[in-house]
Amino acid sequence: MVMRLEGMRKTLTDGVCTCRLLVLPEIMSTNPSTPQDDAERIRLKRLAKLQNSASSSPSASASSTPLPSTSPAPQSAPKPVSRPPAPSPKPKPVEPSPSPASTSVRKFKVPAKLDLPNWEHETAVSVLKVTLEKNVAEQSGYDSVWLKGLATEIESEEPGKPLPRLSADLFDRLLIARLEIDPQTMTDDLEYLPVLASLPPQQTVFEFLIGCWKRLNVVRAALIKKGYPPIETQDALSRLEKMRELIISYAGLTLQEPEMFPQPQGRELGPPELVAPLLSLSALSIPLLSSPSASPNTLTPSDIEQFLQDLALRFEPDNEIDGVLAPVVRQLLFHPSLFRQEGLGGGDASWRGVVGGLEALVSVKSIAAMITRMEEWIPENVPAPAFEVRSLMGPLCRLSVFSREWPGISQTYFSDPDKRSRDDVESSYASLRGTLKSLQNSLFKIFNTLVRASAESREAVLQYFAKTISLNVKRAGMQVDPATVSSDGFVTNLQTILYRFAEPFMDANYSKIDKIDPFYYARSKRIDVHEETRIKATSEEAAKWAEEVPPGPAPNFISDIFYLTIAMSHYGYQKTIQNYTDLAKVMDDIQRHLDFLNGDGSWMGGPLQARTEAAINNVKNQQSKVRSAQMAYEAQLLDPELVYRSIGFTNFLGTWLIRQVDPKKTHPNPTVELPLAKDVPMAFRVLPEYIVEDIIDYLHFSTNHAPDKFELSGKNELLLFILTFLTSTWYIKNPFLKSKINDVLFMGTWGYGRERNGILGGLLHSHPMALKHLMPALMHFYIEVEQTGASSQFYDKFNARRNIAFVLKIIWNNPSHREALNREAQNVDKFVRFVNLMINDVTYLMDESLSELGQIHNIQMEMDDKETWYSKSLEHRREREGSLRTLERHASSYIVLGRSTVELLKVFTAETKQPFMMPEIVDRLAAMLDYNLVALVGPKYQELKVRDPQKLRFDPRGLLSDIIQVFLNLSDQPEFVRAIASDGRSYSKELFESAERIAIKRGLKTEAELEKLRMLTVMVEEAKLTIEAEEDLGEIPDEFLDPLMFTVMKNPVILPSSKATVDLATIKSHLLSDSKDPFNRSPLAIEEVVPNTELRERIEAFLAERRQQKKPTETAKEEDTMDVSP
């Protein structure tokens, strides 16, 4: 029909006549009858007449063609001109007074006959509210509009004949004639003036057609209820459907070209007329309604679905629906309510109307498919910030609570955060989360409906997600300008949608996990990872692997959603979390600045008081704004439902990742065997590194901020992921990722609520994999973290080892874990290296922390001298205060790290002693313990006294107790006693006696332990005498001395590259911390050294000779001192 209409449009030049020629729908012209052809000729003839009249006058002449307007009739129908002797039942809207004849018909059991011509006439009158007879119009009070012009036209076609009864053949002409009536037309036809005056004021063509459509539905329902014979009912229904199609056709074309027929002035026409009822679908968006929903000419919420279905049915062929509904969709989805500063907050919930209207539209499959065909679905050549504003779904998907885009949310819900009670804040959280949940549920419902509408619309949805990802690659960078990427709210909402899409294949039994294509990045170009760092492969290796991947089917929908969810998390959701955590750093900076401004308070009462107070208040206001922004982020990011979904997907992804490295490809049923094979599969190596990074980052975030959400599920998956990649660290190249896995383990043991040992505390003591693999994994990583390859590796390793020490402390009382330690100690070389690193750490950390405590002590003493302190300049005082704060931060960190390492040393020396007695270990261990004992109980220990030691986490009594305990643990080892005695730098008998006195005074040790300490002192003194006697060897040749330690070599070896000769114990000790030759920095392994047998024999001969020479001397001395008196 539209094609025929367009053909006729080309023949018309006048704007008034354009598009007014409409033929009956194809369904009405399947039978090429003569009346139909006649009707066609009549319309053409009449349009020509209209064209001539329009060309002579800007407004249509009332005498030639009266142009009435729409008439929303109430419920009564016009009376027909003549009534047959036996009236047939009428449709419900007509509501005639039942005649006796009709009453008698109802009494019969057999179905009443349908008088089709009479029914058709009355239906046309009741649906269109028109008549060809003046007296009928008058009798109805002009509720039925008299089509005088059409009546005159019909009479002229067949002179002398009475006006025909209204029928389907006339329906098109009746409708056109009614639509062409213009109530604003000036006319001198007094007979027709009442018709124009009775027309509803300001009624649009669309409203009139909606009224017709609604009345037709009422007639249809009444017809079905009458129970006429099936054949007659079907015939009548087919005529009604022809009427419906014609009404819908004109309604659709009116939406496209509202000026096709006369329209009232000052009314919004076209698409807004359908947008308004769509917005009414939300009860909370009623302020947007422009007319009462009960109007007979307005679409009510219960009408909209059927009306949209009728529109779709009529205009779906050849995608005609695009021209009809695309403008409606465009106006709906770019509605001003979506761009108000209040966003989701405030009393105006107009955005809900947009959601409700869109849900109604996409519920019709052809409309859903049409939406994804619109050019605004994925606008071309737009940057990321514009994409969320100019794409169809962007304005809805960007609605959120984050303060950068929606500052009103944080200002309204979280103003004055320091003054808000916890209950008040929780109430704000609950309100916002309820709103977010409503929005995100609706968004998923919409996208899910689009996906199911057709294969093309499903592909369009996937392309929408992929386009968002490709436009926001920069979001994953370190320094990102928010104005160049999509907003946090937009990407977070899309993430929630993808999580919902992923849920069906994340079942508890992992039954669909193998449907995910592991070769997706090679077989699909939807996500570009060419520039991404791989887990353990170069770009060249990844490209070669992709070329060698065997051809296979295109990835399925499950694979698309799986990998899109991963990418959206990396480029979108994870950056949103990072933006939130960055606010905590901003808060720390603000607090430091506030502390700086407050200073020592000397500005109070001085000339700078007003300025300082103003600056302080300004900083406090900034602090309040940042805290409000934090709380707005927490409303979304810590929403329990989102956290559960995020944990669920993250653990599923971790399980899938382990399955890729499991040689059997069966994990988690059964669980993978650890450690993994040394050969890392290429399919795993070429995966983007961000897959592992995002798993770790989200676990880090969730264990820190929402540990309670793991109580329902996720603990086992979390533990298995940690154990897998801590026991097999060679599968991951990036040392920072490995360290983050260790951090997650550490945070998983933090207590929260009533869980004293955190998320993983219970599992670490019970899970078979933990009992078997945790201890070896921790020891292995303790050694590996020594060399991270980064410029910050020196400090990174201390944090990692502190975390390990914390975990070991938690599991130490478990016999299974101690047994695992003893098994590891049997690998002497590995365990000795582990012990050596512990000693190195204690040495450095204790030295730094005690040194900085001394500096803190000095500054505090300086500040305590008030007179001298205030005599200094303000700049000097502030500089010293800044130095004090810096020292306190550093000292606190060093003290915690050092204490945790000492505790680790204490428990290990109690459990396994022999590795600590190795020649390359024992001397350094004894020297380190002696040195720290001097600092704690020696003559300068008073310099460690500081104000508020708890603030610095400094517990000198606990530290002294731990060091004494290490001495006691090893006191029964002769090698250790001799090593203490050999320490000429720090050891003294008085040192041990001082430690004993303080231990007694502070109640640090029991009497039995103190007695053990006294015995150790006696044994050390005896060993010292023995050593002094042995070392009195006189002049020793330089070639017998170790070049690094300057002691007599016992087992000299030659280094292969430098050819230097050192003692075996010395080079072993060196290689524990440094894998290079100390003389030329060439790589060196202990297996490469060559024993210098000849030099060893010479040294042994030299020592034997010197000892032999000493014996006569010692004998002579004894004789000289012998009592020879009688």
Structure characterization notes:
The strands form 2 sheets. The chain has a 3-stranded antiparallel beta sheet. It has a two-stranded parallel ribbon with strand order 1-2. With 1126 residues, the chain is an all-alpha fold. A hairpin with a 6-residue loop joins β3 (1052-1054) and β4 (1061-1063). Mean pLDDT is 85; it is low at 1-43, 45-108, 284-293 and 1121-1126.
Chart the SSEs and their pairings.
Elements: H1 2-9, H2 34-56, H3 100-106, H4 116-128, E1 130-131, H5 134-139, E2 145-146, H6 148-157, H7 168-179, H8 193-198, H9 205-226, H10 230-256, H11 271-279, H12 301-315, H13 321-333, H14 351-362, H15 365-373, H16 384-390, H17 394-397, H18 407-413, H19 422-453, H20 455-471, H21 488-502, H22 520-523, H23 539-548, H24 557-598, H25 609-637, H26 640-661, H27 682-685, H28 689-705, H29 715-727, H30 735-747, H31 761-766, H32 768-784, H33 793-811, H34 815-825, H35 828-864, H36 866-871, H37 874-911, H38 919-937, H39 956-969, H40 974-982, H41 989-1002, H42 1007-1030, E3 1052-1054, E4 1061-1063, H43 1064-1073, E5 1090-1091, H44 1093-1120
Parallel strand pairs: 1-2
Antiparallel strand pairs: 3-4, 3-5
Helix pairs in contact: 4-9, 7-10, 9-10, 10-12, 10-13, 11-13, 11-14, 13-15, 14-19, 15-19, 15-20, 18-25, 19-20, 19-21, 19-25, 20-24, 21-24, 21-26, 24-25, 24-28, 26-28, 26-29, 28-30, 29-30, 29-32, 30-33, 32-33, 32-34, 32-35, 33-37, 35-37, 35-38, 37-39, 38-39, 38-40, 38-41, 40-42, 41-42
